[in-house]
Amino acid sequence: MRALIARTLGGVVVAGLGLGIAAAPAAAAPTSTFRLTAGGVAAHGTYRHMMGNPERPVPPFRITGTLAGRSLFGCAVIQVGRSGPADGLEWRTFGRHCGPGRTQVRVEASYLFRGVKPPVRLCAGRTPAQAERGRDCDEYRPAADVPAGPVHGRSGGSVGVRP
Hints:
Layout: H1 2-28, E1 31-38, E2 41-49, E3 61-69, E4 75-83, E5 89-98, E6 101-109, E7 120-125, H2 128-132, E8 136-140
Antiparallel strand pairs: 1-2, 2-3, 3-6, 4-5, 4-7, 7-8
């Protein structure tokens, strides 16, 4: 009887660890990477969730990266989305690059309306002003956070992790 109880308890512990491991990546997801190309410029970087405290509040995201150009005549801007009037999306430029070479970029951003992570886009043109018009762009939209927890609406009362 003790052997059966030990096996059952062992199985419960292993099953509990399995659920914990499966839930951790969906709940944490602290960083993601992106790669964008537009015109003769490529952008790559990381999108990191920041932690703040009530005494020193900070925007929840830091986006850092590099713009790399290969064309002599092309320019590009990298922009982050922010909430505009009437739930519209506005683009704020946080980096510019013209010609060959590399430029480091960094910005801190907040959630958009309805708790959506802000997108990042790279736009190309002959000048930075032309690139800011947003006609030749490549966009990165971060995956939505999927909270870990019970899945509702399943028959039999089963508990699992949301996909």
